[in-house]
Amino acid sequence: MGYNYEVVIDGGKFLGSGLLAMIVGLFMAIMVFALIIAVIMIIAQWKIYTKAGKPGWAAIVPIYSQIVLLEICDIPTWQVLFYFIPIANVYIYFVSQIELAKKFGKTAGYGVAMVFFGVILLPVLAFGHSQYQGSGTNTNNGENPFPNQPQQTQGAGTNTPAFCSQCGSQIVSGSTFCANCGKQL
Questions:
Q1: Do the domain assignments include residue 61?
Q2: Range of the domain at 168
Q3: Is residue 173 part of a domain?
Q4: CA atoms of 6 and 59, how far apart (whole Å)
Q5: Each residue's pLDDT expressed in tens, for the chain with a length of 185 residues
Q6: Residue 12 burial (C-beta neighbours within 10 Å; 0-12, 13-18, 19+)
Q7: 146 lies in a domain?
Q8: 90 assigned to some structural domain
C-alpha cells in the first residue's frame, strides 16, 4: 500500500519520493566526506602541535587553538584578535601559515600553498619527516651545525673566538646573549 507523491515544478511532474531520496542521499554523501576531511585535519593539527611541544588537545579548542598556533609560529598572541576583523583575518591566516611552514623547515612558498591546499599539505607537514625548528630549539645533538666555523671552546682565559651554537654568529667576549639570534649563552 505505497503512496506516490508528485511534486510539480514549473509545470512538469516529478516523482517526489525518488527525487527526495536522491537529494537526501547526495546530502549524506557530502556530509560523510566533509566529516572525514574534518577528522583528518584535526588529527594533522594535533600532530603538528605535539611536534612543536604543545598539547595536542589544543587543536580541538576553538580560539585557543589559534593562540597556540601563533605561539608555535612566534607571532605575538594578541594578534589572535585579527582573526575577528574582516580582511585582517586573511592577512593573519597567510602570515601564520607561512611562519608555520618556516618553523618546520619549509619555504614561504610552501606556506602560501598551505593556504590554498591545506587539506593536502597540512597532513604532509604533520606526518612527514619535517621537524619543528622553532626558536630556542637545538636539534643538532651537540654537533657543530656550522662546520666552517670552529666550535666554542670551554674554559677561562682562551683567546679563540666563540660562536653561537644556534645561528653560528661570532659572539662578543663576555656576552650572555647572542647579538644575532638572542640565544642565551
A1: yes
A2: 131-137+162-185
A3: yes
A4: 48
A5: 566 655 555 555 555 677 788 898 999 999 999 999 999 999 999 999 999 999 999 999 999 999 999 999 999 999 999 999 999 999 999 999 999 999 999 999 999 999 999 999 999 999 999 899 876 544 444 454 445 545 444 444 455 667 777 777 777 776 777 766 667 77
A6: exposed
A7: no
A8: yes
